[in-house]
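Shipment paperwork, digital attachment
Item: protein structure file
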Amino acid sequence: MATNMENENAAHTVQSDMSGLGRVRIFDTTLRDGEQSPGAAMTHEEKLEVAALLDDMGVDIIEAGFPIASNGDFEAVSAIARQVKNAAVCGLARAGFKDIDRAGEALRAAKNPRIHTFISTSPVHMKHKLQMEPSTVLEAITASVGRARNWTDNVQWSAEDATRTEHDFLCRAIELAIKAGATTINIPDTVGYATPQEYFELITMLANRVAGAEKIVFSTHCHNDLGLGVANSLAGVLAGARQVECTINGIGERAGNAALEEIVMALRVRRDRMPFTTGIKTEMIARASKLVSNVTAFPVQYNKAIVGKNAFAHESGIHQDGMLKNAQTYEIIRPEDVGVMGTALILGKLSGRHAFRDKLKTLGYELGDNALEDAFRRFKDLADKKKHIFDDDIIALVDDSVLRGADPIRVEALKISAGKNVTPTADLSLAVEGGIRSGTASGDGPVDAIFNAIRQLYPHTASLQLFQVSAVTEGTDAQAKVSVRLEEDGRTVTGRGADTDTMVAAAYAYVNALNKLLVKRKKTAPEALTVAR
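Attachment content:
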């Protein structure tokens, strides 16, 4: 298969030359398709933080959102358009003029705006989803792309469910989009149905058959329903596509999207088989992964390629022996190339501030004196409770300290009574608006008692949507990392907390979510629409 792909690719040199010899553009849709993951909604501030990091790491196009979905999405896209310095900023729009104009308005301040408009082209989508005749769909393509060109000459058009679309109709649709002014043509595998060979053949066919294909850039957008998102995307690149749509950590609807970090590192490591480059600063990959995981409360699986906790971990004695002799025996990627600085050092209760500060630097943290002192104090408290302190313990400790240090409502004291034949109760003290509020509440369990106590001390109407506990490291003395999601009047927030005491971590997480909700109450936005591609 690889040999056939290389031979076919040689016939498509025009596609390569259009965006620079061997250059593949990275189109990141974490803020749009990634946020469509159930429960992955981000706040306005979190979106700006993610967008800034994507821009710094060299992403070519940032799909900032779906402006017509809600006022909140419109405001986020507008703010990102004003903030981003290097990348093109893209807004998604359906084929309707209202969608396109809303996207154009949101992108007014962007240095390089892109409107991404789409419509379904497969028989099943046209019949059951759109309830439109093929001829009407073709008319909508010409009209929508033409409308988008009134706003910008950087227009991307997508054939939703392209991999299940009849070839003749797909070619006709693309030709109309090109004629109307589209400069990028996206070929989504919307439901993750294709295999790599099929996807390669599809891009090859389109490059050969579509009139005007030499004038545009073909893009991939592959979902991961069969676990083939990355493989299909790379097959598309080998066939001539020079843009890849992907997300940090592979988040997205259902089983997610092709993962940015896997695409970029596969192209870098296997340049012998895929002679292409990207503009990504790979040493920022781990940082981006961690940020997206934190703001979405979606943990990265331990064995996730490139960014998983175990991606550069070696436990087997045989592997360790090989690593000590030459790291290339068991690692094809250097940890530092993706921003992982090694995790073998173990700090303990006898470590001083200098060692702690140095360790924080290796983990990518630069704290001010006050924040450092607070983190060091908590580190000492943790070291008295745990026999071994791992890097993940320190990361959780610092992240939690930074989160809670900025909260106007804080947990000051907590005492739990629970056990067999005992009604669980929580004695809680909160620091609120410069004063201390204390009270006692009971519940069906200790967590329920804590949350009832918080509601008693700071009354509110938010409902609990998610309570999730995970261990930061192994062992019975591991820190617990807790995520809490609250919902109030259509506003959803996620709070986080960490501590060796799971109940304390739960209190921290709930109060952190409550603080976020207080900020979000000041803003109003209709519930976001869900868009599938």
